[in-house]
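Re: the multi-chain job from yesterday

Posting the exact lines I submitted so nobody has to dig through the queue logs.
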Amino acid sequence: MQSVVLNFHDDMMEFAEGGKPIDMFSQMLRLALDMINRTMFSNDVSQRHLEIAEHIYALNVFMKKRNFSVLPLPVWMPTKDNRSFKKALNALDEIVMEIVEKRLSSGEFGDDLLGMLLSSKDPETGERMSISQVRAEAVTIFITGHETTATAMTWAYYLLSKSPGSLKEVHASIDDVFSQLEISDMTGMLDELKFLDDILMESIRMRPPIYVTYRRASKDTEICGYKIKKGESVHLSPYIMNKDQRCWTAPETFNPSRFQNGEGSNKFAFFPFGAGPRSCIGSHFTILEARMILAILGRSFQFELVSPDEEMEPEPLVTLKPRDPVMMWVKKRV
Ligand code: HEM
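And the result, structure tokens for all chains:
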């Protein structure tokens, strides 16, 4: 993780010195993609990041249409939408299959997540997963493991740039930690950087990357006076919950320190990573990743909106992305 962020730091230096703005979401996608690939698959697909982003955007558009459609058509029907969905999915499958095949031809499973998937055995039958099962698991991590994080980090930089007081505090705290430790001792300083988690959480509260999730009722029940029958689908929206004044003080205000005052501690009221048995398996990974990104980049740079007065509207696809490109200047901190 550390070397991925340090490489990215060098790229940002070029933007800072060249005086060119960046498209924050596109850069965060590139960074998070590199992160998940190197850590989970010991692989580098950074040259293909634009192509991958295009396929994932196509999946997002398709899934959103489908989720909100009154009568979704079966996926096997050769409609225009179904065809572009399959094209994007096949392309991502192929990219991940290349990674799996490369590993198999190396003759060793390796000691990363891909290696674990390839070598794991069913405890009862002793059988290994088929290659297509391994690919399906790997594709899940490949997609879920970078798109959500990139969305969260883009909103974090946007919201921080709109909140000069918080930004100043973050920079002062980062400087404080780095004045005692070297960047090469990143592992040693992770605990010192915990305060950065509040920035991630507050950004995720205001703009939850997964803004709605679904559950099917396993039995007849009643929630807050609403009768729900077995088999019915219930939508749970962190986006709505995170603005509820019963849970949050001044919910429209970006205030990372609210978590220090106990807000957000009810895990069934604040559930940006889901809750219960199907909750996110990557939440700890994301928190650590965000901490490193905010710390290493924050030590050297300040990101400023090219149009500081512009309000970025969220676009509710599968994830809650900024509707328009978030263009930012990379300024060296003096
Ligand atoms: C800001 C970052 C992230 C957010 C906001 C997020 C959010 C979520 C949420 C809300 C769920 C539950 C969905 C539901 O209830 O139906 C979920 C599930 C999942 N997430 Fe994440 N996630 C993030 C990062 C990651 C990362 C980095 C990984 C992989 C390394 C990951 C892998 C998964 C997987 C595999 C599931 C499905 C778990 C299951 O069904 O058992 N996520 N995530």
